[in-house]
Amino acid sequence: MQEERLQDVQQIAASFGAFCGVTGDGAAVAWGDPDFGGDSHAVRHQLKDVKVDGTVVTWGENYPGGDSRAVQSQLRDVRTIAASSYAFAAIKTNGEVITWGSKNPPVEAEELPAVQHIVASHEAFCAVTTGGRCVTWGDRKFGGDSHAVEERLQGVQQVVASFRAFAALTGAGAVVCWGDDRFGGMLPKEVEAKLVKVQQLSASHAAFCAVLATGEVVAWGQPEFGGQVPEHLQNRLTDVNFVGSSKSLFCAVQHSGHVVVWGDPSRQGEVEEVEEELHDVCSVCASSHAFAALRRDGRVITWGDPGFGGDSSKVALQLQDVGKRLKPRIKRSLSETRMTEKAP
């Protein structure tokens, strides 16, 4: 059973519709939609001692980066990896960046000196150099051009991305946004005034959230994607340690290990099914429509749409029926995305 294999988990990562957990013995366990990497059987023999030597193993659909053979010889000593919807960018221990996948415009190596961190929107990347400078590339409609705010992007500590925008946290605790205004790329003045001593940023599909030094949270963007905290939850959002996010929900983890979820009203209730198990939470990861919470005892608690990784209880998903069951959900999700893009 997958539930039995999800013990002593050290780290969780997510794609659009699947999760992968790394256990203490260096094994990797994947679940969710096979089209989005939820089935790692084909490379299981390579998924041992994960993260030890920095070698990269890819699986899933070929065109968005599941096939890395073109750059495989370069994918050694990799420190971290970022993903857009169609491409990957890997940072090696020497700060060099290797990219692969489709819709992957080339970026000159000299533009990316000693990269520390990379994040991605739907079709753009933003790299933070060791000097705290931001370098962006990709489709400008998705935040691939940050020249308009370049002077303000100094001493950058963190960058997060919504579907079509980026938000950066500077060393002074200030927040700088760029990209599509409808997706949080414009910071309202009344929100900016509240962003004092920001500690962490998080992003959903069309909204951003900031955790302040006081443990309070401030959100902006489209309300149905978590850009506005409901009044009945504001009193509960105190002593927050950090915030994770799915496509339409934010999940705040308090220092006590409890969680608070807000965003899409139609999905907020999903967490109630596992609420009693959500204690001593130390980390939260999300696919587009599901969450995986890592507890301090190494157990993983999942909730949300089972087709996107919300149910980790079965190790052997009956894959022959998965495509038929999931394609309508994926089409519906993509349809929602197009509708959001057209929103005024």
UniProtKB/TrEMBL annotation:
It comes from the Eukaryota. Gene3D superfamilies: Regulator of chromosome condensation 1/beta-lactamase-inhibitor protein II (2.130.10.30). InterPro entries: Ran_GTPase-activating, RCC1/BLIP-II. This is E3 ubiquitin-protein ligase HERC2. It comes from Durusdinium trenchii.
